[in-house]
Amino acid sequence: MIILETEHLLFRPLELSDLDDLTALYADPDVMRHLAGPRNRDEVQRILKGYIREYQSYGHSFFATIHKSDGRFIGQCGLLHQEVDGQPEVELGYVLARPYWQQGLALEGVQALKDYGLQKLGFTRLISLIPPDNRASIAIAEKVGMQYERDVEQWGQDFRLYAVEQPKHA
After folding, report:
1. Cα separations (Å) of 115 from 43, 64, 72, 104?
2. Which of 11, 91, 96, 134 sees the fewest Cβ atoms within 10 Å?
3. Mean per-residue pLDDT over the chain, rounded
4. 3-state DSSP call for residue 48?
5. CB of 38 closer than 8 Å to CB of 26
6. 3.60.15.10, 3.40.50.2300, 3.40.190.10, 3.40.630.30: CATH of 4-165
7. What's the Cα-to-Cα distance from 37 to each of 59, 67, 156, rounded to whole Å?
């Protein structure tokens, strides 16, 4: 079931059958450098089941991100329920496999999910939690109109919180 489509990408709910692809993604130290390091298959299976539960509860979570030209699983992009400093937030996040970096795909996916979250799902605000040294993700957040708000500590790690709000109608 395709949730969203862009010029180069398809988004669908993650499934248990994505475990091998997700395990390969989470095993790459470069991909996981800003995400607390690589994970083993058992950890990835637990994480995947959590994303599936979130999707069943909320109608969104991380989505499998598929490259349209070849049908390959290239990562995950999504809208995740988080609590930051005691406040509920919806985080726009993504993780793409290294061969798909520097092609504009992360920007394309993040822009589409931002629009999906604000327009279709009606969220009034989306955030991204980005490690301060993750320059590529900071650049993407800024390109889709997110603005730096403050530094936060989450899960024992320091992040810069970027946010975008639903445009106010006059």
Report:
1. 31, 17, 24, 17
2. 134
3. 91
4. helix
5. yes
6. 3.40.630.30
7. 28, 25, 14
